Amino acid sequence: MIIRIIPCAINNYAYLIYDPTTAICIAIDPTDAGSVLAKSNKLGWHINYIINTHHHHDHTGGNLEIQKITNCSILGYADDWERIPGITQKLFSNQKISLGNLKLKILFIPGHTLGHIGLWFYEHNNFFCGDTLFSLGCGKLFEGTIQDMWNSLNKIRNLPKETNIFCGHEYTEHNACFALKIDPQNTYLYERFTKIKILRQHNKPTIPVSLSDELLTNPFLRADSIEIKKRLGYTMETDPSVVLLKLRELKNIFNQNPNLSTVL
Questions:
Q1: What's the pTM?
Q2: CA triple 96-106-94, angle to 5 deg
Q3: Whole-angstrom Cα distance, residue 258 to residue 253?
Q4: Per residue in 140-177, pLDDT tens?
Q5: DSSP three-state, residue 13
Q6: SS (H, E, C) 146-172
Q7: Residue 106 Cα distances to 9, 44, 100, 116, angstroms
Q8: In sequence order, what DSSP letters do the residues of 71-115 get, joined into one string?
């Protein structure tokens, strides 16, 4: 399984996945056709499938043009049939499919949208999570509830710890700045931040990231930890979804004004 990251637009990531044994190529969340086709043509990979994690335009914008040029199939969540451009095959929660020799399981992870899915290539420990989880962050709640998001994050937390996480955007450095305000005593987080800054100074992706690193440093995945609860003024008995909602509210404020001193 060969993976190529394709930067698109301002901070999106699309992905090309290639099975060298069958020459099957999969495009995941093509933001725009030009970037994805240029990369596939350079590599000599013919795109056979597109899979969309959710319906937002910055993850489906290249669907129709790529489909027109390659005659590829487009796969997406069944309940988003009418919102994913060009979809030809419906995917269902917990469904296992094989594309070439690549096997994946569909995880239903709503919250960011109602029809969001994650793609777990379980034989290779690679998980494509779209905008549900970001490195050191999580997606905004455009359609789902906070309980939806917590349930989805728990599904991701329960994957094998060696799983590589591939998300839909390069937000890691900004997310790290927020995480340090929420979790200032976390030594693992400081170590990660140093590595993240070096990667971004050289314009390199911070993706993929191991789930084990995220479990140690991502405050959104740690909404049930006593450290995060105490920092936000909650008790050990506080439901994690309440903590997660507060984290999401603070992150929305931080996105507009990185000074959280008046809130924390």
A1: 0.94
A2: 70
A3: 8
A4: 999 989 999 999 999 999 999 999 999 999 999 999 99
A5: strand
A6: HHHHHHHHHHHHCCCCCCEEEECECCH
A7: 26, 28, 16, 10
A8: --EEEEEGGGTTTSTT--EEE-TT-EEEETTEEEEEEE--SSSTT
